[in-house]
Amino acid sequence: MSPAEIKTPPLAGAEDDASQRAREAYFTASQYQLIWARFRRNTSAMIAGIILIGLILTGIFAPFLSPHDPTIKGRDKDYTNGAPQLPKFCDDNGCSWRPFIYGVKRERSIKTNFRWVTTIDTEDRRYVQMFVRDWDYSIGPVKSNLHLFGVDKGFVHLFGTDDTGKDIFSRTLHAIYTSLAVGALGVMISFVMALMIGGIAGYFGGWIDGVIQMVTDAIRTIPIIPLFMAIAAFIPQEWSSEMRFFFISIIIGFINWPTLARRVRTHLLVERNQEYVLAAQLQGAGAGHIIRRHLLPSFTSYIIVDLVISFPYIVLSETALSFIGLGLKDPVNSLGVMLQNTTSADVLLNYQWYFIPVLFFIALVMAFVYVGDGLRDAADPYAGVKK
Predict the structure, then answer these.
(1) For the chain, what is the radius of gyration of the CA atoms?
(2) Pick the CATH number of 172-378 from 3.30.420.10, 1.20.200.10, 1.10.3720.10, 3.40.462.20
(3) Residue range 10-25: mean pLDDT, rounded
(4) Please, what is the Cα angle at 125 between 121 and 129, to 5 degrees?
(5) 43-60 and 356-378 are packed helices; what angle lies between their axes, rounded to 10 degrees?
(6) pLDDT at 111
(7) I need a labelling partner for 120 at 20 to 30 A (CA). Which of 80, 81, 82, 146 fits?
């Protein structure tokens, strides 16, 4: 049955054959078909979903989309704190069918007491090229040096550069991937722990549930900022960026499982007394088998919704911690690390392009929020339907 055939059944009254078939299709559809049919009618959620998919793909293929290495190896020494370079087709010297940017030159000026000054050279056209070969990278098992675009000579900085000359556009794309990777790892850890702990508490109940709930409440009361201050002091300075990345992800995952565990527990407390559970118990099925094969699949859609909703909060946790210097640090590119550069008044007054990654951060979080809200509304497809 195609999801396109699933429509909300009409109100009671005279029904022709088409409406009757639509009604039958609705009530015989699978759970996921019903969720998709309801979700796609939510315009804001669909738009957010498209944006979210675009950001995820942007993060995954960040090395291919980036014209320059986002680390210190790819910095432009002649263009530090440089403004965004927008390609153009025409200038005072005429027009070109190929987009181009201007080159830059460094020179000493008597006006600046003979210090080095970077100026735009309008006579130096640098033409934008597609599918250029540059620095090496790997996306999973695939290794390449092919990039979507570049210029015939020098650098191109669509979002400008930072104080070290690193390309903000390339750094932003890689930061999206890092923040998503931290969120995915944190969600996976919290998901597994929530299913195990919440499943045991909800299925057995009694004193076991009481003990687990006391532990859950104790973890929820731990203040996050002091905890990470202690962790930041514990992390050895000689740890690599990769070690710090995985450690922060694991810690974020361990402190975010109680909320989902409570939801799992609540569902199991309701479902454990259903007839299909009693039938499985009479057949001699063990507690682990019943929880894994019968109870958890009965509300899989709700678990998926909870995961999507909790994802932006984990991304926010990483961003906030990195922003205040307790999470990831340079040379790792994450949204929180890049937001650290926006805290000075000099940046606010003179280098506004530093705030471009903030727009991507807002778009990422808002996309997750709208998609999560849409899935939450769609998880109960029979809501408001007259049977």
Answers:
(1) 27
(2) 1.10.3720.10
(3) 61
(4) 140
(5) 130
(6) 62
(7) 146
